[in-house]
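Following up on my earlier message about zinc ion. Here are the inputs again, as you asked, copied directly from the submission form:
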Amino acid sequence: MPTHDLFLLHLGRIGRPDPATGRIPWAPVPSYLIRTVGGKTVLIDTGNPASTIGAETAQPWSDHRVDVRPEDDVVARLAQIDLRPEDVDLLVSTHFDWDHCGRHDAFGPAGTESLVQRRQLSVARGGDPRAIRALWDIPGIRYTAVDGDTEIEPGLRLLDTPGHAHGHQSVWVETAEGPVLLAIDAVARRINLVTREVPNWYADPPEAVRTIARLAALAEETGAYLIHGHETSQWDALPHSPAPFRRPEQSAN
Ligand SMILES: [Zn+2]
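Thanks, got it. Here's what our run produced:
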């Protein structure tokens, strides 16, 4: 099986104060860069909007508190591995929540092609308020709708993982460290694997629970290392770019 190079890009942290304690449960905002054996440069999500850099909150996009430094901008993270936005051949949009598509604007001038599940593109175009048009619908970006599980190259495929958002997608990638399942928000936190419960604001909670079961079984059967979308304890234990991904000695799952 061909293997691809994977980098984990740290794009800052977000959180909402706990109403009881006022404490903010900070969660990382990742994106991922894959250099394929076939020579493609694939970016998965773009993280927080540029307006969050140095800001207290993500207003006007969200009331989340933010901790985003200049080096947490996706363009700065790409520069650390000698890449510019125009070097990205494919931008995988997992879904259009503000903290996942917030820097799509950096890829408009390059005319980047973006792969998104048809269902997510259709609800976003239909005016779903979660998909803030000013963030995702960027002149120049060429959206290509994909239907369900889709292979980009052998050992690199998109997985249709709906529920958190309609048409949410995750990514399967074979690396020299073994297979990796970038669950994104299909399994945002480790607790989701334990409780098999999701927040009621998800687009389709029953479907989200079925998706968790599918990904848990897939990781179990294949030995893939599952990376959560927003799990601080896991994220902080993994090497971030410019270092390549390495699987921890003891699985953090
Ligand atoms: Zn998210």
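One observation from looking it over: The longest helix spans residues 205-222. Hope that helps, and feel free to reply on this thread.
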